[in-house]
Amino acid sequence: MTQDNPLLPPLEDLPGRRTLRSTNANRLVVPPVKLSAVGSRAFAVAAPHIWNTLPTDVVAASSLSAFRQLLKLGMVELCDYARA
Q1: Total number of domains constituting the chain
Q2: 66 in a domain, yes or no?
Q3: Distances (CA, A) of 15 to 12, 61, 75
Q4: Residue 76 is part of which domain span?
Q5: Each residue of 20-76: pLDDT tens digit?
Q6: 36 lies in a domain?
Q7: Residue 77 covered by a domain
Q8: 0.85 surpassed by pTM
Q9: According to the model, what pLDDT value does residue 78 have?
Q10: Cα–Cα dist 25/59, whole Å
């Protein structure tokens, strides 16, 4: 998110502002749910949860084709692990 107001400095330039390891992790915020039976299966909750469980190399893929290839490779490895 960019700031168009020249009077406000960017947040990363503020003194004392710590940078977290999760800053560049490409993770999504999972919204809180009120009803655990139905709410956790809603797309708005399930999609970010699944995205956040993907390995970092898959999420950080440089292109769509690389993302697909890494995702398929990860799914095959997961299936092989589950069979063993």
Answers
A1: 1
A2: yes
A3: 8, 32, 43
A4: 56-84
A5: 555 566 788 888 887 767 777 888 888 888 888 888 889 889 999 999 999 999 888
A6: no
A7: yes
A8: no
A9: 80
A10: 8
